Amino acid sequence: xxxxxxxxxxxxxxxxxxxxxxxxxxxxIGLATAPSLFAGFLGFGAPKDADVNVxxxxxxxxRKVAPPTKEKPAIYYPVLAGYREEGSLVAGEKTPPxxxxxxxxxxxxxxxxxxxxxPGKTPxxxxxxxxxxxxxxxxxxxxxxxxxxxxxxxxxxxxxALVAGNTLNNISSLSFERQDILQAARDDRYFVVVSAYDFExxxxxxxxxxxxxxxxxxxxxxSLAEVIPSLITAGGPHFGxxxxxxxxxxxxxxxxxxxxxxxPVVVPDAESKPKAEPEKKSPKP
Length: 285
Fold this sequence. Notes:
The chain is an alpha+beta fold. The chain has helices at about 5-40, 60-65, 100-110, 155-165, 175-185, 200-205, 225-235, and strands at about 50-60, 75-85, 115, 125-135, 140, 150-155, 190-200, 210-220, 245-250. The protein has a seven-stranded mixed β-sheet, with helices on both faces. Residues about 1-15, about 20-45 and about 255-280 have low confidence and may be disordered.
């Protein structure tokens, strides 16, 4: 019987050790990357964008006001109503600085030809814009009756107003779209609301609402600080324009809630006098 050469036996042993080492390396790599792979597969990874629900309700008074244009912009007086919590409390929630939110809103509004009132620099304002933001959580409780289990949705009206507003009247009660809206109303949500009032009526201490824009998104996997720029960016093109149905807009998330925002634009008064040109000096002889 012929024996295999020693070199062949050594090669077979090397291959076995190589395969074992390879399996061990692959197992180590697999264990190291499993969290990220499973996170992406199961949807636990850090999101890169937000699905924003946008609704703009218009009143009869608001329908009489034409949307602003480049030639005829709208001047508004801003009011920061600030942060609000509606529903059960969220522990450790970090709220963005009001000035940061004001700059984001001013930039988005300026893109739609709404400009901040500046004393001596702009015409008199025609609108009073009130801004508030925060989160709203559904309050749903069981009746506690084991024989007839039911749930009570205490703030369903408020949640539906946030995600659908007056557009709910335009959607069939038997449609899948309505079911999606009812489900969205059961999500914990972050929101930004812009309410436009007639300025002249406000000076007389009367509330004449023109339109109200509501932007919201589910609060899972994101913080208010990082998602608030997305809410404002998504809602901007809809400001002052009535929606017949809730609009779904995908907007990128800001890293750590930081966005580079320019200085709010101010429209100069058409009647203001132009700046005098500097006097030209005659050349020295």
